[in-house]
Design a protein that fits this description.
The complex is a heterodimer of chains A (548) and B (324). Chain A is an alpha+beta fold. Chain A is built from 17 helices and 21 strands. Chain A is 30% helix and 21% strand. Chain A starts with a helix and ends with a strand. Chain B has 13 helices and two strands, in the order H-H-H-H-E-E-H-H-H-H-H-H-H-H-H. Classes of the chains: A alpha+beta (548), B mainly alpha (324).
Chain lengths: 548, 324
């Protein structure tokens, strides 16, 4: 044993600790592709945040700011204006000036032609772009000079200057590849066939090495004109198993685990109890909205009294306090509390068991047999409740809810399925009674796909749309349509408030909580600023440094 | 023997072809598709986006048509394109296969050598303290779940003592052979320890059986030393049943490697299979599962051949005719 111990000790001495000019970040997913427009994985957004910059982004205060542009164009400063379109409708014209010192990693300047190639790829129906809607809305792009872009869009919308998902693709490297055959471009893109080419990146870092499924190496981009990044190399190591991720952090193989794609909340809470001396713990409310969809076509669940009773029967405050130590806020609407359009005075369906019981009796379920309510026809108040099997935290919440409902005489039977079955055959085809999952959104995201009646999936429309509960509410439809066209934030606010009020009052969906991203940051590392939205903290990677 | 080998190879190819069809259809019949997964958490995809993606990936076509297309391409050497790795399947698999091969081969050889040595030692000291200790090790080894031992190794040697890394792959900055060895010590030890007990148990039984044979008595009567009896006579004969167990165990090692790869965050075939199935990456999952099937077929084939090489009395084809 002593010999073995000595041998291990010698091995350990042979490999001294790394200097702090390198950083190893642990991540729980590997990007499927490095092309910014193909696939929409969070892991890719996280890594590319270090290597690429879009035109705009939302900052940590959820304020829209320029990244690649000189000034954010607005109607007020003349950078944007309403225009009449040839078909008689109204559209918008928005002018962006690209930063004069914005360069690709090979020294070539970022120019308007790069934005035009992005648009051509984005609107092509067979290019494999995951979400092409934003590009299809652009009718034309004019380029008065190589650093100026004038976008004309097909509608008037308040998000006219939000180009946070508009990436630049380097035309000098990628145009020929795309034009050769747009349909097979996704298989030939330089981002996947020549990933280490510096010309593909315009951020503070560039990707220099990729080991598929395992790690990504980034090094500073010498042509980056912004703040000089500190780390000479950043290694991103992908470890999907959360226990292994934690072991690697504690053993020093990894310096920092990505707050957005690393530990689960319960894991971080447990770690904090043991490792508070080594790490700073920061729980940032995110846009992930955990909720339960009621199927509004269910004969019992279509009764608003039953749905409201089901919300009143739950003590969600106690649930989050006991399971999440109060780090996750109870939701009363789909809109995050940090969103500027979040309504402050929503009708809250709080815990009120007596009210729940009264509502159920009013709905006809006034008899209790073996602890479960029944109506005059002998129908039991019983529902199937599904979520993604294997998600330990979700399944724990589910059991707690089941127990709380039981006290009100509501029988809930758990029926979980693997994610691909749950989403593939369950929610998207509306084969559920109650389904618990999360939506990931963005600041001031219009709920068209989830609440507009045109978006109810059905066999007739080929199961398209994400209004899984089946909300059919003319007032919501009209409000959504009006919302998008209203440019004045002050006038949008009451529309948003009305939508959220209707959402809360009608209980089409049972809001649970907004998830919190646990940031476990080593005490020696500074500059990481959690955002809580989909534009990750890596967009400020140049500010990451060791504590002086 | 050559004829038999060729027959077995042809049979193996037929089994692989049938397996490819079964796997493709089963994967395709699973509810949901990659596009559903893309849309599952994000409410911003429009119906047009989802329709375009389904058409692009051929998901709107009948499953059998898709399989036939795949089979035609596979016959020309193209196993398709991995959607989750954005590269051809044939270019995706080799680094993962190499990693798993390194892990499995080193573990296999270590487990085999260690297990055979322990089994022989136990048989030679039957009923003694050494035999009891080795039996206890074999019992504990067989009863120990791979994931538990792996976690124990990490907690002890990586987190508590800090002697060895918790993951099995060195970061890109550390590419030396010693880095790789250092990172492989824990997963290889885990796999080898779990398998070694099994080999020791079988080797002990086979060696005890051999030690009771007349020819061993004859060898001893001729004055051969105990070492020579055990290594020169017993070992060769006892290896025959152990070879079969080892060959089948090699296939089993693959499933053990899956768990080990997950816990040690090792990018090998086990992890690749799991990820490709979860992501509905048909082409990649099919190729990986076929490779796993081929490995089992090859292991059985190797067992047959080794069996014959170790015991010339065992033959094929004509020998069986003679027996009848």
């Amino acid at each position: 044993m002593r010999v073995a111990a000595l041998a291990f000790a010698l091995l350990a001495l042979a490999f001294p600790a790394k200097a702090k000019d390198e950083l190893t970040v642990g991540l729980s997913q590997f990007p499927a592709t490095f092309h910014p427009m193909i696939d929409s994985m969070a892991a890719k957004s996280y890594v590319l945040g270090m290597a690429r910059r879009p035109i705009t982004t939302y900052d940590k205060d959820w304020k829209l700011v320029c990244l690649m542009c000189v000034e954010l164009p607005t109607v007020e400063n003349g950078g944007a204006r309403r225009v009449s379109l040839p078909d008689g409708k109204e559209g918008m014209e928005v002018t962006f000036r690209i930063k004069p010192d914005a360069n690709w990693g090979d020294g070539k300047p970022v120019v308007a032609d790069d934005a035009i190639l992005t648009w051509e790829i984005g609107k092509h129906p067979r290019s494999g772009v995951t979400s092409g809607e934003g590009y299809r809305r652009i009718l034309k792009i004019e380029t008065p000079d190589p650093k100026t872009l004038v976008f004309t869009s097909d509608r008037v919308t308040f998000s006219y200057n939000d180009f946070s998902q508009y990436d630049f693709i380097p035309a000098h490297l990628e145009r020929a590849r795309f034009e050769q055959d747009p349909e097979t471009y996704r298989r030939r893109t330089g981002y996947d066939t020549d990933t280490a080419n510096p010309g593909l990146y315009n951020g503070p870092y560039r990707i220099t090495n990729v080991q598929p499924g395992a790690s990504i190496t980034l090094e500073p981009n010498p042509h980056w004109a912004g703040r000089k990044p500190h780390f000479k190399r950043i290694f991103v190591r992908v470890i999907e198993n959360s226990a292994a991720l934690e072991a690697n952090l504690l053993s020093g193989s990894i310096d920092y685990v990505a707050g957005e794609l690393g530990f689960t909340l319960d894991q971080a809470l447990a770690l904090e109890k043991r490792q508070a001396a080594r790490f700073d713990f920061n729980y940032v409310p995110s846009l992930l909205y955990e909720h339960i969809d009621f199927n509004l076509d269910h004969p019992i669940l279509k009764d608003v009294r039953v749905r409201r009773a089901m919300v009143h029967a739950l003590d969600r405050e106690a649930l989050t306090r006991q399971l999440f130590e109060g780090k996750q806020r109870v939701a009363h609407s789909f809109m995050g509390p940090r969103d500027p359009m979040s309504a402050a005075d929503l009708p809250v369906l709080g815990f009120d068991l007596a009210r729940a019981q009264a509502l159920l009796a009013e709905a006809g379920f006034d008899r209790v047999v073996n602890g479960i309510r029944q109506n005059a026809a002998g129908e039991r108040l019983s529902f199937e409740f599904g979520t993604t099997a294997g998600n330990r935290l979700r399944e724990t919440v589910q059991q707690a809810l089941q127990s709380q409902w039981r006290r009100a005489g509501i029988d809930v039977r758990i029926r979980n399925e693997p994610p691909r079955v749950f989403f593939g055959d369950g929610t998207s085809k509306r084969r559920f009674q109650m389904a618990m999952y999360a939506w990931f959104s963005s600041p001031e995201a219009v709920p068209r796909t989830t609440l507009h009646s045109e978006m109810i999936p059905s066999e007739a429309n080929g199961w398209q749309g994400q209004n899984y509960p089946g909300v059919r509410e003319p007032e919501i439809d009209a409000a959504i349509d009006a919302l998008e066209r209203e440019l004045d934030p002050a006038k949008r606010k009451p529309i948003w408030a009305r939508i959220q009020t209707l959402y809360a009052q009608n209980a089409w969906v049972l809001p649970l909580y907004f998830r919190a991203d646990p940031f476990v940051i080593p005490k020696w590392l500074t500059g990481i600023e959690p955002t809580g939205h989909q534009y990750y903290s890596t967009l400020g990677v140049e500010n990451w440094r060791p504590r002086p | 023997m050559l004829r038999h080998a060729v027959t077995r190879l042809v049979q193996g190819l037929l089994v692989l072809t049938a397996a490819s069809f079964a796997i493709y259809i089963l994967l395709g019949l699973m509810p949901g598709d990659p596009v559903d997964l893309i849309a599952s958490g994000n409410p911003n995809f429009t119906p047009d986006d989802l329709r375009n993606l389904r058409e692009l990936h051929g998901l709107d076509r009948p499953l059998v048509d898709r399989y036939l297309d795949w089979a035609a391409s596979a016959l020309s050497g193209d196993l398709g394109y991995s959607r989750t790795f954005s590269r051809p399947v044939l270019a995706t698999i080799p680094p993962f296969l190499a990693n798993t091969a390194a892990l499995m081969l080193v573990s296999f050889v270590l487990a085999l050598v260690f297990g055979i040595a322990l089994g022989l030692a136990a048989a030679a000291n039957r009923g003694g303290a050494i035999d009891t200790a080795i039996n206890a090790f074999a019992f504990v080894s067989a009863a120990t779940p791979t994931f538990w031992l792996a976690l124990l190794m990490i907690v002890l040697f990586a987190v508590t003592l800090g002697w060895l890394p918790a993951s099995a792959l060195p970061p890109p900055g550390e590419d030396g052979i010693w880095d790789k060895i250092r990172h492989l010590i824990l997963p290889v030890t885990t796999l080898a320890l779990v398998e070694a007990g099994e080999y020791a148990r079988h080797m002990r039984a086979a060696a005890i059986d051999a030690l009771a044979q007349d020819w061993v008595r004859t060898a001893r009567a001729k004055g051969a030393s105990e070492t020579r009896v055990v290594l020169g006579h017993v070992l060769r004969n006892a290896l025959v049943p152990v070879a079969t167990v080892a060959a089948l165990g090699f296939g089993g090692l693959f499933s053990g490697a899956l768990v080990t790869e997950t816990i040690f965050a090792y990018p090998g075939m086990g992890k690749l299979i799991y990820d490709s199935i979860m992501a509905s990456d048909f082409n990649l999952a099919l190729a990986c599962l076929l490779m796993a099937s081929a490995l089992v077929i090859a292991a059985n084939f190797a067992a047959d051949m080794v069996y014959a090489a170790l015991d010339p009395r065992i033959g094929f084809g004509r020998a069986r005719d003679d027996d009848t």
